[in-house]
Every structure is written in structure tokens, then in C-alpha cells.
Amino acid sequence: MDELDVIAKETGKTVAQVALNWLLQRPTVVNLVIGARNETQRKENFGAADWKLTTDQVRRLDEVSAVEPVYPYWHQRQNTALLPLPEFY
Question: Which DSSP helix (H) or strand (E) runs through 62?
């Protein structure tokens, strides 16, 4: 959340817009299903799609959201000669 706050201030966007924009730029995300309780939230959510985070901002969000992979992925990363993985794993 701290990094989302920082990037929201840098971009002049809301935290929700930054989070949604980051998700839209993930290589494994095909689409987003967004929800809103009212018209204001709907407009805010749609405001996440008409701009892009910088490469540095994406990298920072990737770093702070990284989690330790579960088995078998951590094991496969050690054996990439046997089973090469795409970069986004």
C-alpha cells in the first residue's frame, strides 16, 4: 500500500487506478473484472485504462508485491536447463 500511495501521488491518480493499471500491464492478465458500488467508483475504475505506469513504477510494484513461489515453481526455477520457464514466472 505504501508504494501504491507514492505512485498515486507521482501520477496524480488514485490508488485504485494505479493498482488496476498495474494489473492491466501484467503479462499473465488477459482481462479485469472490476466492480463499483456507485457511478463515482465506476468512473474512477475506468480512469485506470487511459494511461500507463512507467517501467520504473511497474518494477517497483512488482518488487513490493513479489511472493515466494510455491512448489513446483521454486523447484523448476532451479532446473531451468531441463524445463525453461517464460520470464514472467
Answer: helix 55-65
Which sequence spans correspond to the domains of the chain? 2-78
Give pTM, 2 decimals.
0.74
Q: What is the 3-state secondary structure (H, E, C) of the chain?
A: CHHHHHHHHHHCCCHHHHHHHHHHCCCCCCCCCCCCCCHHHHHHHHCCCCCCCCHHHHHHHHHHHCCCCCCCHHHHHHCCCCCCCCCCC
Residue 87 has pLDDT above 70, yes or no: no
pLDDT tens column, 56-79: 999 999 999 988 888 877 777 777
